[in-house]
Inverse folding.
């Protein structure tokens, strides 16, 4: 599976920070980056679902990526952002500590994900990219957002 | 050419035509002598065929073509109509429907139609000799003395006068390549070519309008008045691309004479070149003739109200001749939209346009944004207290209120389109079950929101099946119990307040309380003791319990592994209620109550902890503030006495996991909600007030969240969740 995912071409990614690591998500999957705003709690959902926001008239769910990846809670910062991503027909906001860069990642710089990185299961990763001195963790959003995954988490929590 | 952009249009129209065929067939079965109905059916089938051929759906076209043959014979009195024949036609319509559905689902609309086609041709052979249907291009001139079409007196006069003035008259048959995509455009080019140099088409078969709409297979015929020689005409037409064959037959005075049996008074040397002065004559005289002719037709139109097709063609061809430049050049899309307006106008003179529901949704979304901004403006204006600003905001408020009405109305669709398929379905079912039934539909023009319309069909189908299968007795049983042999099922829709009611009633055997109780006890749904205390209403509600089916044995009709519980769930998911009433021996009535629209609901806004929630007003019985002292404990839960009835309290803070700090300790604010006969009190922190909210979905990521049916955006821009009270009432 990792091999297949490595067949990526040169991509442009948005770089964001979660805890101490830098992550990358393909620009094509990102709709916009929003500042923090009021989030309405949605009851009886998995922990990492923070709630829903009003994104220009569309009710959009928001996920706390830190909780999702079990990286521990963090106070909301001035730099905290909601990255709105679209995967298939699912539109979701991801809360990240900061979003600050757009960089090109050449396909040659991407390596398969190591077994364990910062507690995130390798399944959720497309790979790790070394760009200059930076190490970027490329997320596999399809997996992170898959409905089956959400169901699974729900069951475990229940 | 990319056909995809026309696909939607094709699908819409195909459905319309199929519906029309269905309806008319049913009508025809009742009145087999009314050939006007056959004509209607024929017309729909014909249009459908043309559309299908253009879009490249060969099987569809083949089948409709065969169907047309049968219909054509019926309308020409060459076939005797019988039930078998109608069945076969219905069967072909079924096939057509499944093809169209395959197309809707993104398929290629292919289906093996050999069987049904052979059945159709068998039926067709049952009648006399195969007549040539002019519109199918089979009316080909076979011998020199045969003209491909009839000429009426007026046309004959035009022809004669033209010949007198030194013109040639030709019958031209043009064969277009069968795979030609823009047949009407080709036809237009042929017309243009024919009319070069003072020529004029005085009659076309099929009519010019039909040709414009591509309602012909691959050939059409025209009667041409021209100065050119036959070869020249042929050559010119052949120069048009995608023309396979052109047959030009000159109409000599002798031929005409033979044709009409009328002595030709003047015989002109046809080879004489017409002079300048006479060149405009035929046109002028033709026009005069026409004006006169039109008067005549207008006069006769009244007399022949059920216009036979010949009259119609005649009229059309005349109006064509009156405008020498026929048909506007046709980008295909135009042709299609024309078909639409035309077919529409024959049904009703409504001027309508089609708008996709997606666009309306976008409009709705934009509008709700506007409503939200309006709320903000109102708030700001009241803070600033500037009179002019206040006036403007108020005015804007009124206008947006009107706008809201319009937008909501645009989403309303008559329930007709759901009801339409039932007569056909009931006919089929009655046949399968050997029952006689009359379906009586009322209130088909009742309007419902589009979102509801899409969902309501299946439950009604289920209830109709139920009425036919379980409700109605067999004809024998009915006779025995002194009833009419034919059962009556009524389907009725009507508005009442903010609700729409749909009733399905039959005059069958009714529901027997004992039978239901017996079964319910059997299945362990209720105990015997409970059963004794139940009211009839409560017993009937058992029908909707899951795992309950009253059918003695599983039948084809209702034994599909689903019971009425599915119906109930569906209707409740639409915020509706379904109830049953029955008189044993006299019949049963199922009544469905639905909200007018699902997209905007009136709700009660409440506060729970830091969150605001909307509770749909139609589920609310009352709101109350109850002293803590009046809250009682029963088992592990809290209950209150509400007007003599003990109802459970549901603490929303607990259900939604919102923590317990800052709750009043002297009293509880309760929203009393009902679901059918059951009630519950939802405990909230405070009431905010009543407000119309726009219902929005939570998207594809968060699906099926317990007790939440959707969300809305409030005036301050925040999202409030809408509580699904049905999930909270046990």
């Amino acid at each position: 599976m990792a091999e297949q995912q490595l067949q990526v071409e040169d991509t442009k990614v948005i770089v964001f920070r979660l805890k101490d690591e830098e992550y990358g998500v393909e620009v094509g999957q990102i709709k916009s980056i929003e500042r923090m705003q009021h989030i309405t709690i949605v009851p009886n959902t998995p922990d990492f679902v923070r709630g829903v926001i009003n994104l220009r008239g569309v009710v959009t769910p928001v996920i706390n990526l830190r909780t999702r990846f079990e990286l521990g809670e963090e106070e909301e910062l001035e730099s905290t952002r909601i990255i709105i991503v679209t995967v298939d027909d699912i539109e979701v906001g991801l809360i990240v500590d900061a979003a600050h860069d757009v960089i090109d990642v050449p396909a040659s710089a991407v390596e398969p994900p190591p077994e364990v990185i910062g507690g995130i299961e390798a399944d959720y990763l497309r790979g790790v990219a070394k760009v200059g001195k930076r190490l970027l963790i490329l997320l596999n959003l399809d997996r992170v957002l898959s409905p089956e995954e959400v169901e699974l988490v729900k069951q475990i929590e229940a | 050419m990319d056909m995809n952009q026309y696909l939607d249009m094709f699908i819409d129209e195909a459905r319309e035509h199929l519906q029309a065929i269905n309806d008319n067939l049913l009508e025809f079965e009742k009145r087999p002598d009314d050939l006007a109905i056959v004509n209607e059916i024929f017309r729909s089938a014909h249009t459908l065929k043309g559309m299908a051929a253009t879009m490249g759906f060969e099987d569809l076209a083949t089948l409709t073509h065969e169907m047309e043959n049968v219909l054509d014979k019926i309308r020409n009195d060459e076939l005797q109509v019988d039930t078998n024949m109608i069945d076969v036609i219905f069967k072909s319509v079924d096939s057509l429907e499944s093809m169209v559905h395959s197309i809707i689902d993104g398929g290629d609309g292919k289906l093996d139609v050999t069987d049904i086609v052979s059945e159709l041709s068998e039926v067709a052979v049952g009648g006399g000799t195969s007549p040539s249907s002019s519109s199918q291009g089979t009316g080909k001139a076979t011998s020199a003395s045969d003209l491909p079409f009839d000429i009426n007196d007026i046309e004959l006069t035009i022809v004669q006068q033209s010949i007198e003035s030194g013109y040639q008259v030709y019958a031209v048959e043009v064969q277009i390549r069968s795979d030609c995509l823009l047949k009407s455009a080709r036809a237009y080019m042929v017309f243009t070519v024919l009319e070069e140099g003072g020529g004029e088409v005085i009659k076309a078969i099929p009519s010019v309008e039909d040709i414009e709409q591509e309602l012909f297979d691959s050939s059409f015929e025209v009667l041409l008045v021209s100065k050119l020689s036959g070869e020249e005409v042929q050559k010119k037409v052949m120069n048009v691309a995608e023309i396979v064959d052109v047959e030009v037959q000159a109409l000599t005075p002798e031929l005409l004479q033979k044709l009409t049996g009328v002595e030709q008074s003047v015989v002109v040397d046809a080879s004489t070149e017409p002079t300048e002065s006479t060149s405009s004559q035929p046109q002028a005289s033709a026009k005069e003739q026409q004006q006169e002719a039109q008067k005549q037709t207008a006069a006769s139109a009244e007399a022949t109200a059920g216009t036979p097709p010949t009259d119609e063609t005649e009229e059309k061809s005349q109006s064509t001749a009156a405008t020498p430049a026929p048909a506007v050049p046709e980008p295909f899309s135009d042709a299609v939209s024309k078909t639409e307006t035309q077919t529409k106008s024959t049904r009703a003179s409504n001027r309508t346009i089609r708008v996709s529901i997606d666009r309306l949704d976008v409009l709705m979304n934009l509008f709700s944004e506007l409503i939200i901004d309006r709320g903000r403006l109102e708030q700001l204006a009241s803070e600033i207290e500037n009179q002019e600003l206040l006036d403007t905001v108020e005015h804007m408020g009124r206008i947006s209120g009107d706008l809201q009405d319009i937008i909501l109305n645009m989403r309303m669709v008559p329930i007709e389109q759901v009801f339409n398929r039932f007569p056909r379905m009931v006919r089929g079912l009655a046949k399968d079950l050997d029952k006689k039934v009359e379906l009586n539909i009322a209130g088909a023009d009742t309007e419902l929101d589009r979102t509801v319309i899409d969902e309501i069909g299946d439950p009604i189908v289920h209830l109709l099946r139920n009425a036919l299968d379980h409700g109605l007795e067999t004809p024998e049983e009915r006779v025995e119990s002194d009833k009419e042999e034919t059962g009556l099922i009524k389907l009725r829709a009507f508005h009442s307040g903010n609700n729409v009611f749909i009733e399905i009633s039959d005059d069958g055997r009714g529901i027997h309380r004992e039978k239901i109780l017996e079964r319910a006890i059997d299945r362990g749904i209720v105990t015997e003791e409970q059963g004794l205390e139940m009211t009839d209403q409560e017993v009937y509600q058992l029908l909707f319990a899951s795992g309950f089916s009253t059918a003695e044995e599983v039948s084809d009709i209702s034994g599909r592994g689903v019971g009425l519980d599915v119906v109930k769930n569906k209707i409740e998911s639409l915020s509706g209620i379904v109830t049953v009433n029955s008189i044993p021996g006299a019949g049963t009535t199922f009544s469905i109550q639905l909200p007018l629209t699902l997209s905007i609901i009136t709700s009660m806004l409440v506060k729970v902890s830091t969150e605001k929630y909307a509770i749909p007003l139609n589920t609310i019985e009352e709101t109350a503030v109850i002293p803590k002292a009046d809250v009682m404990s029963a088992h592990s839960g809290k209950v209150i006495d509400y007007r003599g009835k003990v109802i459970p309290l549901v603490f929303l803070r607990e259900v939604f996991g919102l923590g317990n700090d800052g709750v009043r300790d002297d009293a509880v604010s309760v929203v009393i909600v009902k679901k059918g006969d059951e009630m519950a009190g939802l405990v909230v922190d405070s009431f905010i007030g009543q407000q119309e909210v726009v219902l929005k979905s939570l998207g594809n990521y968060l699906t099926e969240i317990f007790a939440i049916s959707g969300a809305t955006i409030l005036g301050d821009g925040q999202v409030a969740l809408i509580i699904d009270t049905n999930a909270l009432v046990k």
Q: What stands out?
A: The radius of gyration of chain B is 34 Å. Residues 127-146, 262-287, 297-349, 550-561 of chain B have pLDDT under 50 and may be disordered. Chain B is about 45% helix and 20% strand.
